[in-house]
Design brief:
The structure is a single chain. By secondary structure, this protein is α+β, with helices and mostly antiparallel strands. The chain is built from four helices and eight strands. The strands form two sheets. A five-stranded antiparallel β-sheet has the order 2-1-5-4-6. A three-stranded antiparallel β-sheet has the order 3-7-8, with helices on one face. The two termini are about 30 Å apart.
Length: about 180
C-alpha cells in the first residue's frame, strides 16, 4: 500500500442520525466542552432496501481526512488504494453503526433487521459538516455548511436554533448528503 493504510485505532464513529433524530453521540463528543466544534467529520449516508429514510454516520478518521484533503495521487495504484480505504472506512462505519444500534436497542445482531438488509453508501466531501453542541436540543448535531458560508456558519446556525428562529432540520442532512 502506498502512503495510507487504515489505522483502525484512529477511527471514531462520532454520531448516528436518521430522520433528523440523533440516535447516538460518541463519548469523544460528549466529553468535549460545549463550545468545541468538530469540522473534520466525514459524512456517510447509508440507504437500506425497504427503509424509508437514510442513516447518516459521521466518522472521524484523520488519515482518511488527510488523504481526501490532499487529493493528490501520484499513481493509479495510489488512487486504487484510496478507493479501497474509502470502502473499508464505510464498511467499518456500517458495522460499528449496527453494533451500536443493537446495543442501544438491547437486541442481538441476528435479530436486528438492518443487519440483514442490503444497503448502499455515499460519502461526502470534506468540510461540509461541523459537529456542534446545540443547547436547545441538548446534543451534538452535524450542521451542514458550504465553503462559501465562512468559518462561523455552524455557530450562526446553531444560534438560530437555540433562539427558536430556525428548526434544526433546516441545517442537517435528512434525505441527501450535505452540499459541498
Amino acid at each position: 500500500m502506498a502512503w495510507f493504510g487504515l489505522r483502525k485505532d484512529k477511527r471514531i464513529l462520532l454520531s448516528i442520525m436518521t430522520d433528523g433524530k440523533i440516535l447516538y453521540t460518541s463519548p469523544y463528543l460528549i466529553n468535549k466542552p460545549k463550545d468545541f466544534q468538530e469540522g473534520r467529520a466525514i459524512e456517510i449516508m447509508f440507504t437500506f432496501e425497504g427503509v424509508k429514510n437514510p442513516y447518516f454516520v459521521y466518522v472521524l478518521n484523520e488519515e482518511y481526512y488527510d488523504a481526501i484533503s490532499c487529493n493528490f495521487f501520484s499513481s493509479l495504484s495510489d488512487a486504487h488504494n484510496f478507493e479501497k480505504m474509502r470502502t473499508d472506512n464505510s464498511n467499518w462505519a456500517l458495522v460499528e453503526m449496527i453494533k451500536i444500534l443493537c446495543n442501544i436497542l438491547g437486541v442481538s445482531i441476528n435479530s436486528f433487521p438492518l443487519a440483514r438488509t442490503p444497503c448502499n453508501f455515499l460519502h461526502n466531501k470534506i468540510n461540509t459538516n461541523t459537529l456542534i453542541y446545540v443547547d436547545l436540543l441538548k446534543d451534538w448535531y452535524p450542521i451542514r455548511h458550504t465553503m462559501s458560508e465562512g468559518e462561523n456558519a455552524a455557530v450562526i446556525k446553531a444560534g438560530l436554533v437555540n433562539s427558536g428562529h430556525a428548526d434544526i432540520k433546516d441545517f442537517i442532512s435528512l434525505y441527501n448528503l450535505s452540499p459541498a
